[in-house]
Amino acid sequence: MRRAWRPAAQIGPKEAFVLDTVADSHQNGYSITAIPEEEKSMKAKRVVIGAVICTAQCLAIAWVMRAQQKPAAAPAKIYNTAKLKLMQGKPIFGVTIESPDPNIYCAAANSGYDFTWIEMQHSTLTYADAARMIWACRGAKATPFLRVPDATESDIQKATDIGVLGVIVPTVDTVEKAEAAVKWSKYPPVGRRSMGGGQHKSLYGDDYRQTANDNMIVVIMIETPIGVANAEKIAAVPGIDVIFAASGDLGNFSGHKQGEPEYEALVTRIHDVTLKAGIKLGGPQMWKNRRTTPSFRLPRSGCSSRRALA
């Protein structure tokens, strides 16, 4: 080992007494020689600058990636308890309302059913009657559904404005009628529902416009041989939540009675097409455990009404 250095006079004031170990090519061992502190300082500065640049680049890349990532969507606010049960894979059951008496409505809405089926296709009820009943029994356990006379903008607009959270459209024979049911039930961009007055905000909150689409249930009823023939196309319409297999009108329009092979074939086809499309299946509660056609069963997740509807 040998120690090498330069005289102090040849070393700048900032270079004195800096030692480093270097290999000696002439001996088996090492020698210690003085390295100027300025050279060491420059090396350290280069290392620090490189680390700073690398860190800055990494932070910039991370910032860009974060900016490009879309923020996670907030979970939907669901206050439609009937829809929530369907989303959880549970069946729902409803009771039909044909009387304008709010007391009768409230008694039915708090009797254990999941939804009320306000009947306006085959009754003399008005939208004013329905609005009074829904308001008188706001906060009831059963969610208000309403069967409109037809899939028109006027009918569905009034139904949704008074606070209905389930729109039931009868006698759907065509894709166009199924599309209309969804279009007038949902706000843009999903549908074409107009934003107007009504008691819906008082029932469901000031953010109703932002939450309505997630809470609305669209039920379409297939009741004729024509509708059955178009079942696959109807079931392919986006936005349909439930397809309801009717009972009375399937016989009325087909000319066959329940239990006859032709009638049962219509019911079975509605059943099979609906479930294949991943849509909830609805039917009268008396069909929950049908014996005439074993292939028809309301599944674990579906909806039914207390009475068979025409």
Q: What does this protein look like?
A:
This protein has 310 residues and is an alpha/beta fold. The chain has 2 domains: 3-68, no CATH class; 81-305, Phosphoenolpyruvate-binding domains (TIM Barrel). Helix content is 40%, strand content 16%. The chain contains 12 helices and 11 strands. The protein has helices at 37-68, 81-87, 102-109, 127-136, 153-161, 175-185, 200-204, 208-215, 225-229, 231-235, 248-254, 261-276; strands spanning 3-4, 19-23, 30-34, 92-97, 115-119, 143-147, 166-169, 217-222, 242-245, 280-284, 302-305. An 8-stranded parallel barrel has the order 4-5-6-7-8-9-10-11, surrounded by 5 helices. Helix 5 runs parallel beside helix 6. It is globular and about 105 Å long. The N and C termini lie far apart (109 Å).
- Unreliable spans are 1-35, 292-301
Instruction: Describe the global form.
Output: globular
Can you summarize the main beta sheet?
8 strands, parallel, barrel
User: What name does the CATH topology of the largest domain carry?
Assistant: TIM Barrel
Write down the CATH class of the largest domain. Alpha Beta
Q: Tell me what portion of residues adopts beta-strand conformation.
A: 15-25%
Total of domains: 2
Oligomer: single chain
Q: Based on the structure given, which CATH architecture of the largest domain is correct? A: Alpha-Beta Barrel
Order of helices and strands: EEEHHEHEHEHEHHHEHHEHHEE
